[in-house]
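Predict the 3D structure for this chain.
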Amino acid sequence: MVALLAIQATSVYGKAPAARVQFAAYPSYECPPDFLGPHEQQFFECVKVRRRDTLAKLFGSNWEIVSRINKVNPLVLKIGMILKVPRDFEWAKTYSPLPDSLPQVRHLKQFVLIDLGGQYLAGYENGKQMFWYPISSGFNPRQTPHAYIRDIVRIDSIQSGRMYKDSLPDLSTPTGFFSVLWKDSTHVSGTFFKIDSLTSDSIGAPMPWGMMFFPAYWEHGTGDNPWGLPGYPASHGCVRTFDKDAEALYRWVKHRTLILIVENREEIDVMLGQLPKGSRPSSNTRQN
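Done. Predicted structure below.
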């Protein structure tokens, strides 16, 4: 069935066109309960990945929009994966999953917000959002979808040579206020390793365009690892982004820029409410 849907007037995502829009010929799919929030249902629909599907095949030139909204590298689509798809791709070009403005930080020239629940990152200048990027944060057995836990264990075992008797431990990304402590465009992990496909040697995992925000925790690109952004939390605690996003963030952000990492969007105002006007908290005040 080809979706033919009317987009309603307004929501928290802004004004949508009133005209009816004919969408591409891909089958719509009934969204699982709670997959879309109440405020998202008029703006998004669900599509289930079938055998031989690719993002380009399904969505043509709009494939990257779907890739970014779903935080997934197109090379690692999995049969049965459910995608959140905009009902109107023109509207989606200006869509942001995080607040357009944060008045609480308008006194800060730069500010970075990371939402672990949504798996998104945004950069702000004087409280105005300048960009947003999809991420993959630390694996958490309580939050990462159960269907993907086996994949994470298998992929990590292949790449690193480690074997897990049960499952990966809780590798959650810490939450709270942090700041940019160090930057390294060619950083290599000294903690986690991978097997070199040519020499079979164990080498440090590449973490290109790295930005350390807490000892041993970095925001960085995925390098040659297509599973770096699989659509869910899957890292060892770092915050991964696509390489081009990591590079852009690396070039934009300055040392000591304030970072707030929250479990979900509902915590943003609560945490920023602890920020006295015109000041900044002590950096690296980890909450978990």
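Helices lie at 55-59, 63-69, 89-92, 146-160, 243-252, 266-272.
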